[in-house]
Amino acid sequence: MAYTSDRAFEMICAAHERGRLAHAFLISGAPGSGKEELAARLIQHVNGAKDAGADLFGDPVAVEVPPLDDLESGWVRVIRPRMKSRRVGVDEIRNLEHTLHLAAPGGAFKVGVIVDADRMNDQAANAFLKTLEEPPRNTLLLLLTANPQRLLTTIVSRCVRLPLLGGRALLADGGEDLVNALNRAAVKGFGTPIAALHLKGVFSEFLAQCRQEADATAKAAEKEETAAYRDATDGAWLKEREAFHKAAAEVEYLDSRTRLFDVLTAWMADLMRLKVKSGGLDFPDSASVLAPIAEAENETKLLQRMEALDALRRTLETNAFEPLAIEVGFLKAFG
Q1: Would you say residue 59 lies in a domain?
Q2: How many CB atoms lie within 10 A of CB 98?
Q3: What's any one GO cellular component for it (predicted)?
Q4: Residues 210 and 76 in one domain
Q5: DSSP labels for 118-153?
Q6: What beta strand segments (E) does the chain contain?
Q7: Of 56, 93, 120, 271, which has the fewest CB atoms closer than 10 Å, so is most exposed?
């Protein structure tokens, strides 16, 4: 079950008041779902943020919640991916462990927040696992991620999971750019082989960019590891790590491809919603562009196009040759 940010906050506060606060929470959700704000509110709560009083009419004034990074102090650590490879390294986790083993004044909670926790490299994740297994007294660990499936199962199993509702997953991480590009392509033509190949070209450009970014991230991570461990290990281990990072790049790319297909499918679904005037658009700002296309399309044909798009997604989950599968799939879906 997923919760709103407010409901998750209420549940954790209730557990704290009963003296049953867990030491680790995995807070997941799409970008914009409120993960960082929830973490900031929890830090304030466990360390005694007081009500701001009442206004002139006697209504309570809410405590102002500052940005998460503004709460970092001697007993609060906020870790983010800051390496060139956008990974969280083991040194940052060890610094966090050092903080957590210090004695905080007045029984205050020591809090460690890991933003984009799925970006921990192997050494960092294994080091953090030891802290999860034997947390120091008065410790609160908050792991924030939009991709909990990328975390070690041993880490996930030791956290209370709090998936959050909301956010703008479809428009995040290039989704909005893809929607705008699809709109521009569709205006030039829709429902012909040439138009289908034009849309395919637009989508393939976004896939190529995702591939480049995934490869660049993996190469940066491999370079950092090689520099750090070249003199402390043998060549066979480094070769194994090279294969590991290559596989990691492929996983990163496939995740990005899935996200882009989610956007494409939602875009096509908006055409159907506009056709049947059902409302609930995923991309309401595109309605003025898509409405004339939906009006000109046959409802049955739109359903066939959506089925063809779904068939393409299933094909790509096999070992099919991606460029050919996408070209054939787009001709069926948009031709």
Answers
A1: yes
A2: 10
A3: DNA polymerase III complex
A4: no
A5: GGB-HHHHHHHHHHHHSPPTTEEEEEEES-GGGS-H
A6: 24-28, 76-79, 110-115, 139-145, 160-163
A7: 56
Question: Looking at residues 12-19, what average pLDDT do you find?
Answer: 90
Contact 111, 76 (CB under 8 A): yes
Q: Name the percent of the chain lying above pLDDT 90.
A: 44
Q: Quick check: 197 and 330 in contact, CB under 8 A?
A: yes
- Domain-terminating residue out of 163, 186, 215: 163
Give the contacts of 63 (CB within 8 A, at least 6 positions apart): 44, 49, 50, 51, 52
Q: Containing domain of residue 251, as a range? A: 175-334
Indicate the pTM of the whole model: 0.65
Residue 334: partners with Cβ closer than 8 Å, 6 or more residues away:
190, 191, 195, 196, 199, 200, 305
Residue 124 near residue 89, CB atoms below 8 Å:
yes
Residue 170 lies in a domain: no
Residues 136-188 pLDDT 10s:
888 999 999 988 877 888 999 999 999 888 766 678 778 899 999 999 999 99
CATH classification at residue 41:
3.40.50.300
Where does a domain end: 163, 187, 215? 163
In tens, the pLDDT along 261-305 reads 888 988 998 999 999 988 788 899 999 999 999 999 999 999 999
Query: Alpha-carbon distance 242 to 248, whole Å?
Result: 10
In a domain, 131, yes or no: yes
Q: Same domain, yes or no, for 119 and 66?
A: yes
